[in-house]
Specification:
By secondary structure, this protein is mostly helical. Helix content is about 75%, strand content about 0%. It contains eleven helices and no strands. The termini are far apart.
């Protein structure tokens, strides 16, 4: 049973969202490099220390749903129904994230990210962190029974699937193709595939 957030948590979440919304509006209006942390704090009517209490860096303001996305990916593993296959569960979550990030409203944001070396670097480090969190969740599931290397490899594939599909002309078709390959890769790492010699040399 989910416990509703208290008044303090709701107020904290509202402040965080206000800061993020203000930052994104200023970045899109003036350009990412032209806006400083103090500009965002002043426009959002919060202290700079309050801003940093919610966001560790200027780049984090752009990727304000970073933690939410990471949590959703790990929960796709941990919240599966008993005996539900892993890869289809991950595909559903990645498809949902891709659709969110390919909405028309997201286009100017991704254009801004593509034009900023700092934001591209931050996104890359974020994706690596998400992949490690996902690999940890997969490895912790006793029903999946894979090596650490297999878990980390498939997690990287899944995170890359998100990026590749987001950039594809037809994201759904791209996901179909990519996850067909991920499914095949996951299958050949199973203990049964190894014991029967079907996992390759």
């Amino acid at each position: 049973m989910t416990v509703p957030p208290g008044r303090r948590e709701r107020k904290k979440a509202a402040t965080r969202q206000k800061i993020a919304d203000t930052a994104l509006r200023l970045f899109l209006e003036r350009g990412y490099d032209a806006v400083g942390i103090r500009d965002v704090a002043a426009e959002a009517d919060v202290a700079v220390t309050t801003l940093f209490a919610h966001f560790a860096s200027k780049e984090a303001l752009v990727f304000e749903r970073d933690d939410d996305f990471e949590q959703r990916l790990t929960q796709a593993v941990t919240d599966r129904t008993p005996h539900e296959p892993l890869i289809p569960a991950l595909r559903r979550e990645i498809q949902s994230l891709v659709r969110h990030c390919t909405a028309d409203s997201a286009t100017p944001v991704w254009r801004m990210i593509d034009e900023s070396p700092a934001l591209r670097e931050y996104e890359e480090s974020m994706r690596l962190r998400h992949a490690e969190s996902l690999a940890t969740a997969i490895a912790a599931d006793p029903d999946l029974s894979r090596t650490t290397t297999a878990c980390r490899t498939v997690a990287r594939f899944v995170i890359d699937a998100y990026s590749l599909a987001r950039e594809a002309p037809d994201p759904d078709a791209a996901l179909d193709e990519i996850f067909w390959m991920i499914e095949a890769a996951w299958a050949v790492t199973s203990p049964s595939a190894k014991s029967t010699g079907t996992a390759g040399p």
